[in-house]
Design a protein that fits this description.
Rhopdopsin 7-helix transmembrane proteins; 77% helix
């Protein structure tokens, strides 16, 4: 079983994910941000599946390793789809939503094929390494796409405040998670590194929940000051 700190962060993260779904329902924005909510619903179900497997077989078992890596890949794909849904909302105002969805599907399939190609030589690695490689590659692709999306937001005279906050939070999340993969090798030397991914998992639903509660769907923000801040 994980330690007390890891278990605490796990529980807090799951509660915050539920909180975002509840906030979306309360704000009557569940279907508008359906794929964001779907990601958190899948994450809650994944946490339940991981906990049951962990309790039954232990953290060092092959069963838990398979469940962890493949659910991690599933969640990464779900978050990638959530990002594409934000693309649809932003580019929908520019008249490019259909083209963006088509390009995103091709990019997702291409990333999955590349990840498979990285590990296909070894059958033993396919059990866990493919899922790990897929997650790592999708986080990098997601990071790039988030910054592209942010650039598109800055092209608008004004944008919905919720979208701006969602995209900013997601960009920081992808950046931090991409960096965390580079720190995995330090986990044996610095025990704090092993809690990084769980801490990041708490910050995204917290940020999105606060955004959902503080801003209405009609709330807008001018993008000109954002460009000025960047400069």
């Amino acid at each position: 079983m994980p330690g007390s700190v890891a278990l605490f962060l796990w529980c807090v993260g799951t509660l915050l994910e539920v909180c975002f779904v509840v906030c979306s329902l309360a704000r009557k924005a569940f279907f508008r941000y359906f794929f964001l909510n779907l990601y958190f619903i899948l994450s809650v179900l994944t946490s339940a599946a991981r906990f049951l497997t962990l309790n039954a077989y232990g953290s060092s078992s092959d069963q838990y390793a398979h469940v962890y890596y493949y659910t991690d890949a599933l969640l990464t794909v779900a978050l990638f789809i959530a990002l594409i849904s934000l693309y649809s909302l932003v580019f929908g105002e520019l008249g490019f939503s259909k083209q963006i969805r088509f390009a995103a599907v091709l990019l997702l399939l291409g990333t999955a094929a590349f990840s498979y190609g990285v590990v296909w030589q070894s059958e033993e690695r396919l059990a866990t390494s493919f899922a790990y490689e897929l997650s790592q590659n999708l986080y990098f692709v997601g990071l790039v796409l988030t910054y592209i999306l942010w650039g598109a937001v800055l092209k608008l005279r004004e944008a919905r405040t919720r979208l701006v906050q969602f995209i900013l939070s997601l960009g920081l999340y992808f950046s931090a998670y991409a960096a965390s993969y580079a720190l995995v090798n330090l986990a044996d030397k610095f025990s704090a590194v092993q809690y990084l991914s769980q801490l990041l998992a708490c910050l995204l639903p917290l940020s999105w929940s606060v955004t959902m509660l503080r801003h209405t769907e009609d709330s807008r923000i001018a993008t000109a000051p954002l460009v000025a801040v960047q400069r």
